[in-house]
Amino acid sequence: YHHGDLRQAMIDAAEAVLAEKGVxxxxxxxxxxxxxxxxxxxxxxxxxxxxxxxxxxxxxFDELSDAMETAVAEAVSSGGDRLAAIADAYLATxxxxxxxxxxxxxxxxxxxxxxxxxxxxxxxxxxLVRETKLALGRHMTxxxxxxxxxxxxxxxDLGAILFVWSLTHGFSTMxxxxxxxxxxxxxxxxxxxxKLYSQQLVQLLVSAVRQRRSDVGA
Length: 218
Known about the structure:
The protein has helices spanning 5-21, 28-35, 43-46, 49-74, 79-96, 98-105, 115-135, 158-176, 181-184, 189-217. 34% of the residues are buried. It has 10 helices and no strands. The protein is globular and about 65 Å long.
């Protein structure tokens, strides 16, 4: 391999193993075998299995962010429609690459202090924060795509942000784990379930906002 080729070959091999065997069948040796190199060869680029998984997770965050930004760009301008669009994108990304999705958010060890991984994760979460706040009618004075988790300690919208993320992530996990199989056989199939979810998410958030404003004005 020439410089740069081995790294990409290993990432491609990792993606293939994840797609075929999932995280439980993922080993550095198998990835190296598929890339056509010795088990020791990837050490220069990744160090070990954790390094390779971290590279895959970084790509996963980037893919998720790109999908959400594309969905927002194609949505109409209202905050609710934008939020529904990123929920749709989140679900679609999880379903398209369930193995990668499990690496990003799963139990496998990653280099949590890795700069690229941290930036990619902050960007993905920041998009969700931005769109949740827009749906709430908030005016933002900072860039949520670079905010650290510690900065949310006094954020009045943290509950709503975690609500949106938890519901969307949980629904994604249920889908890729096949826990909604019986519902996917109903008329409209999975596509209808996805649409129902994103619509209900926005309705719940909007209802909560209206209730909070009503309580404040009472």
